[in-house]
Amino acid sequence: MGMSGTNGEAVAKGSLATLPAGDYPELPYATVCDGELLLDDGSASPYDGLTPLYKRLPHGPHGLAREAVARHQRARLYGGMVESVYQRGYAGTSVAHVIALAGVSRRAFYEQFSNKEDCFLSTYDALVAASRKRVLQAWLSERGWANRLYAACQVFLGEIASDPRGANLVLVESIGIGPRGHERRQLTATAFERVVATGFSLTPDGIALPPLAPRAIVGGVRFVVLRRVREGRHEELAGLTDELLDWVGSYRSSAVTRLRTLGSGRPPHLVAKRARFLTREDRRSRVMDATVQLALEDGYTNITDAEIARAATVSTEAFHREFPNKEECLLAVVDEFAAEAHDAVRRATRNDTDWPEAVHKGVEALIGYCAAHPGLVKLSFIDLFDAGNGMVERVSGVLDGFINVMTERIPEPQRAPSVAAEAIMGAIWAILSSYAPHDRLRYLPCLVDHLTFLILAPYVGPRPAIEAIEAAGSRSKRLKVS
């Protein structure tokens, strides 16, 4: 989940405020006075158009302890990283850009961080911790559970709507920086899932969320925010509090206790299959197949175009006639994977006139296809992000088509908010991603009922959704017996 870059403090135009002291106990923060936020009037930056965001500390004796100077510089470097990444992206940002914006020396940078990635991840940690604290403070500032929930959600969305720079670093630019970035995103999601689970455990009516709901809620909200930040539509977030809370509320019902026992049996034995598009007798398919095998064996970031060409028994020139680079080849693999998965869903649901039953069968088909192709799931939901943050649209495309199929026959009247389909897509994405590692994929078939509930409940209500799932399960058992 994301956060704003300025924390609402008044600063000079175009500058970033540093994070307040104490927002993250493991990281030191400087308390920066108004004078320190003035633009530097000293020597020109080595980069045209990069005016330092903060006035440099004076040279010579200034009465500040060494530790205070280090905290001050670190906070400025956080601000420089946020601003540079917002202006030109992580890939286009250099240490020189960051220190020019922060108004500190290269030596000071390397006294704080080992390299650009280290600075980026420290900034990421600081922003996430500050956002989490502000959400909790908003919760505690109100009385009554419903008021607290609304205030926390409003603060979270409102700050990003007013300043998307921090959210851009955390949600958008952290994608594609390697394993450490993926680890950070997972840890962030887990931390916010705990916040959600704790908050909903305090409801005065004692109604609990279903087991996967905290992960679904965090994934859904994250996806709604991410899309708007990436597309420059962040101001819309200020008006989405009611819609998102309506979506979240659709999962609360005393009937969810029945859902806990659904799909709780032992996972079935799964046999991995090769996707049809990898078995075609043409050069393009051979190249894609080689990419899949090498990426799973050696890791996508560790393979080269030339290695893929050798594995596919073609020349590098022949490889480049099919794909300009390995990134485009991986994207083609994901597109083919999505097309086959959508085809499986459509075939499973084409004869159903009952919408809830069609949703259950569609989820069953999607999960069945994913469980039978674990390597492609890993590439599509984990490794793809090593190819850069532009890959977000490709993964969302995998689920966009599925959600469109699932929601195209919704009966009237529709009770779900307009943001529901988008949030559901993010929820399913988060859950599938968490099961993408091979040792967990075998449990996917146990989630069919739970994922069906996530789709149905916002549209028909939680109790009718569970009744429809139970009816679908009974029909399936009768068919197996007969």
Summarize the structure.
With 482 residues, the protein is mainly α. 62% of the residues lie in helices and 0% in strands. The chain is flat, with a radius of gyration of 25 Å.
Characterization of this structure:
This protein has helices spanning 66-92, 95-102, 106-112, 116-140, 145-162, 165-173, 179-201, 213-230, 241-249, 256-259, 283-298, 305-311, 316-322, 326-349, 355-372, 374-381, 392-407, 420-435, 438-441, 448-460, 462-481. Helix 1 (66-92) crosses helix 2, helix 4 crosses helix 6 and helix 11 crosses helix 14 (326-349). With 482 residues, it is mostly helical. The model is unreliable at 4-49 (pLDDT under 50). Among the domains are: 1-124, Arc Repressor Mutant, subunit A (Orthogonal Bundle); 270-481, Tetracycline Repressor, domain 2. It is built from 21 helices and no strands. The chain is 62% helix and 0% strand. It starts with 65 loop residues before the first helix and ends with a helix. The protein is flat.
